[in-house]
Design brief:
heterodimer, A: alpha/beta, Rossmann fold, 2 domains, 6-stranded mixed sheet, 9 helices, 19 strands, B: alpha+beta, DNA ligase i, domain 1, D-amino Acid Aminotransferase, Chain A, domain 1, OB fold (Dihydrolipoamide Acetyltransferase, E2P), 3 domains, 7-stranded mixed sheet, 20 helices, 36% helix, 23% strand, binds zinc ion, MBL (chain A)
Chain lengths: 341, 531
């Protein structure tokens, strides 16, 4: 029996033929990176290969690194193995990684979602034999509503808070969620203020996407400036001293976990908006079907449950454990946020 | 239903008490009398008997959502609430229901007698037709147990705003046994009737922890000292040859303590006693652990009753010969109580008087407090001799002076794997206390010792099943378990999120008898800071 094209070893997802890792979690020689979230793009690799857009993002996050940018659908060959990146729709610059050797095709999704969010290039299904998929929200209890409806709710919430003379504080991860929220905030209601971590990241992305105007919160920003306006902040700012400046304020969190009533109470936010950059249950099933793959490998999320269901549907599905973390802590490390506040 | 679902949505979408009360008061204002009664009933956990068993509900939900039953069960396991799981997995619609809450409840009461086919059609039709929140509320009404962060106290406050009736009086009216199906809003809330009062307890008067040096309370002659017993606070009512035993959580627990059943005939009618249920193995007061073997048991085996009998240690008399004594001074109530107890002494009943400890000085009081361990008490109660019996937690007249170490009941919120031989178990815990408005849990201490291996294994298994999120090695868990945390010292600290730093925190015991609502608050912690 020949060795599988991709294996999971202690450093990450490894292609031995090309001596390349996909989103490795320990330092390696050569890494192809799906997207800029901290659990997928880590420090310490000698060489990074990623999408052009993501080059800017990971340079911002990781500092001076040796990185090569690629376009979507551009094939590059390493020791006879053909690699290419394809839109994953997860966040701006996110890719699925296609790996082909002697006619056998594998696709690693990184993180992905199917809905076109207007910021990231929308997901494109790639035909393959083996599909390595995340399943962060791989439970039938997760069903997203269209983002247009969610943003209507968010803007309505902001407007109501403003009427009540309250500042709205909306939590979302600095990379991805924050920009997606920002894009659809209605500036007829008021001004958009940002936490430093979000402003820094948005500055990187602004040249590529049309965003409304934002104002960075600094030491000089007063309560009066903020009153009635909206503040975009990373989740870790909740409960910090930084947030006291917003008083009187109302908090909300935008995340897939907000689908659970308990999650909102536990995060102690006033309001939860169900908005995720990952696939819901049905999206996962749709995506898998579209790849035509027979072998499915489930990584982070409800892997055991999801792969059992896939097996019952006739797929050859199994799980592999990784160090990817899903929507809870993916986007930034605590230090990155603290530095910027 | 639309309005009620809307109310639940509003209550769900704020953590602020004032907004919750406002939403409730507004709902009460606009609701019909029938809906008002049912809302009070539901929010005080008086739901009609479950019309459909949950096994059927799970089966139907998995069919309707076109997923295998095991997958439904796994989802339920993760979501943690059956009604919420059902509401989540069933395909969505945006439609509304025009039926009222009370119409739904009448239908559900009638549904109980129907056959399974009829039930299935009724339930699944509604699931299909109701939008997410209404579907959730509808299913919640079937399965029971609304927990939406609205205490009886908040509901009473809202009702008081709507009706203009005093909160304490309302609390009293809403206690005890009443049937939402037959009682009118007029009878329940607006009108008073003597017959309603048979089982009704009085609201408990609760003491604060001593905030100053005991001597600062003034002349010792003004105070009465007794031990603070470490059992279940309870109110025992004997009226018209009936016995009712209430626990502090306003639960009727008469059936759990058959030892007390002779009280119905042996203690004069029109008597209400305030006291502590204590374990009494080998004819001596046992530990709280002993009592835990009795708590939560559905059936009481003969062996258990023999091994761990209970007694009632009484310390106050709230009603005598049918008269409400609560406005009488404490010493007067105690004098009658003492007479009553001596009249019972020949009868060999499991009832004992909590003795007053005569102290001539605060030094003597402190010495008595040092005897707490030997007395199997938690410390002392210091009650002003002329104090009336008040409602709820009030400062000034009653104080508890607990023994060292300082202890507090906290909620488990995060867990991490242990080290060494415990590295395969989650044994490092983070605990939280309630914030000022009782709506948010704030982390205050980490502790990783104090439980037995067997207990750690049990908690570990629970953690694995109740993980909300994983952050690397740390898991956040559903706030559900309460532990008594002991520590050697406490000081204010700006470096800690709670504002307090504790010294050598450790787990004293797992309070399986306590709900998270009964855990302590940061204010309680503050009262432990020595002055
Ligand atoms: Zn990601
Ligand atoms: Zn991920």
């Amino acid at each position: 029996m020949t060795k599988p094209l991709l294996v999971f070893n202690k450093n990450g997802i490894f292609c031995e033929q090309a001596n390349v890792y996909l989103d490795p979690w320990y330092p390696v020689d050569r890494a192809i990176i799906s997207h800029g979230h901290a659990d997928h793009s880590r420090y310490g690799h000698r060489k990074y290969i990623t999408h052009h857009t993501n080059v800017l993002i990971i340079k911002h996050r990781l500092g001076p690194i040796n990185v090569t940018g690629k376009a979507y659908n551009e094939t590059f060959v390493i020791n006879n193995v053909k690699f290419s990146l394809h839109p994953a729709g997860h966040i701006i610059g996110s890719s699925q990684i296609r790996v082909e050797y002697r006619g056998e095709v594998w696709v690693f999704t990184g993180d992905y979602k199917l809905e076109d969010d207007g910021v990231a290039v929308p997901f494109e299904a790639v035909k393959c034999h083996s599909f390595i998929t995340e399943c962060t929200f791989g439970l039938p209890a997760f069903k997203w509503t269209l983002q247009s409806k969610v943003f209507e709710d968010i803007n309505h919430w902001w407007a109501t808070n403003k009427e009540d003379n309250q500042t709205s504080v909306l939590f979302g991860y600095s990379l991805g969620k924050a920009q997606r929220l920002l894009k659809y905030l209605n500036t007829d209601i008021g001004k958009i203020y940002t936490h430093g971590a979000i402003e820094n990241m948005t500055e990187v992305i602004r040249p590529m996407v049309d965003f409304p105007e934002t104002t960075r919160i600094t030491k000089e920003t007063t309560k009066k400036d903020l009153l009635g306006n909206i503040v975009l902040a990373p989740p870790s700012a909740h409960g910090s001293t930084w947030i006291r400046k917003m008083v009187p304020y109302v908090t909300a969190s935008a995340s897939g976990w907000m689908a659970f009533r308990g999650a909102r109470r536990r995060r102690a936010v006033d309001k939860g908006f169900v908005l995720s950059d990952h696939c819901d249950w049905q999206e996962l099933l749709t995506a898998i079907e579209a790849t035509g793959a027979e072998k499915i490998i489930c990584t982070h999320g409800y892997t055991e449950i999801f792969s059992r269901y896939l097996r019952e549907q006739g797929y050859d599905a199994r799980t592999e454990s990784t160090q990817f973390e899903g929507e809870s802590s993916e986007s930034e490390t605590k230090e990155e946020v603290d530095k910027a506040s | 239903m639309r309005n009620f679902a809307d109310l639940i949505r509003k209550l769900d979408s704020t953590t602020k008490t004032t907004l919750k009360v406002k939403a409730l008061a507004k709902f009460f204002e606009n609701a019909s009398d029938e809906d008002r009664v049912w809302t009070i009933a539901i929010l005080s956990h008086r739901r009609p008997p479950r019309p459909v068993n949950t096994t059927l509900l799970r089966k139907w939900a998995s069919e309707l959502s076109n997923i295998p039953l095991w997958l439904f069960e796994e989802s339920y396991h993760i979501v943690g609430d059956l009604a919420e799981t059902i509401a989540l997995v069933i395909p969505n619609t945006e439609s509304h229901s025009d039926k009222s809450l009370s119409e739904y409840l009448s239908e559900m009461i009638a549904l109980k007698a129907e056959d399974d086919d009829f039930k299935k059609t009724y339930v699944t039709d509604h699931w299909r037709q109701l939008n997410y929140y209404e579907r959730f509320v509808f299913t919640k009404l079937i399965t029971g147990g609304f927990r939406i962060g609205v205490s009886q106290k908040l509901m009473t406050r809202a009702l008081s705003q709507t009706t203009g009736i005093d909160e304490d009086i309302l609390a009293y009216k809403l206690m005890g046994k009443w049937d939402p199906n037959t009682i009118s809003f007029e009878d329940l809330v607006l009108k008073e009737k003597a017959s309603d009062f048979l089982s009704k307890p009085y609201p408990f008067y609760l003491a604060y922890g001593l905030e100053t040096a005991a001597a600062d309370l003034g002349a010792i002659e003004d105070w009465s000292i007794e031990h603070k017993w470490d059992g279940i606070r309870s109110q025992t009512i004997i009226r018209e040859d009936h016995l009712f035993v209430w626990s502090r959580g306003e639960e009727l627990v008469t059936d759990k303590y058959p030892e007390f059943h002779p009280f119905a005939t042996e203690i004069p009618n029109g008597t209400v006693l305030d006291g502590e249920i204590l374990p009494f193995p080998d004819k001596a007061i046992g530990t709280f652990k002993d009592l835990q073997t009795r708590i939560g048991r559905k059936t009481l085996s003969k062996a258990l009753l023999e091994k761990t009998p209970v007694i009632l240690k009484v310390y106050d008399l709230l009603e005598w010969k049918g008269d409400d004594l609560r406005q009488q001074p404490f010493v007067k109530r105690r004098a009658i109580l003492k007479d009553l107890m001596s009249s019972l002494s020949s009868k060999d009943l499991p009832i004992y008087l909590s003795e007053i400890v005569e102290c001539q000085s605060w030094d003597e009081v402190a010495k008595e407090r040092d005897r707490a361990r030997e007395m199997r008490s938690e410390g002392l109660m210091i009650k002003r001799k002329d104090s009336t019996y008040q409602v709820g937690r009030k400062k000034g007249d009653w104080w508890k002076w607990k023994t060292d170490p300082l202890t507090i009941d906290a909620v488990l919120t995060y867990a991490m794997r242990g080290h060494g031989r415990r590295s395969n178990l989650f044994t490092d815990y983070t605990f939280a206390l309630w914030n000022a408005n009782g709506e948010e849990l704030v982390t205050f201490a980490k502790a990783y010792s104090g439980l037995t291996d067997a207990e750690f294994r049990k908690v570990d298994a629970w953690i694995k099943k109740n993980t909300i999120e994983r952050f690397g090695p740390v898991r956040s868990v559903t706030p559900k378990l309460v532990f008594e945390i002991a520590f050697e010292g406490i000081a204010k600290s700006s470096r800690h999120k709670s504002g307090y730093a504790t010294r050598f925190p450790r787990i004293l015991r797992w309070r399986q008898d306590k709900k998270i609502e009964e855990a302590n608050s940061l204010q309680d912690l503050e009262t432990l800071i020595p002055v």
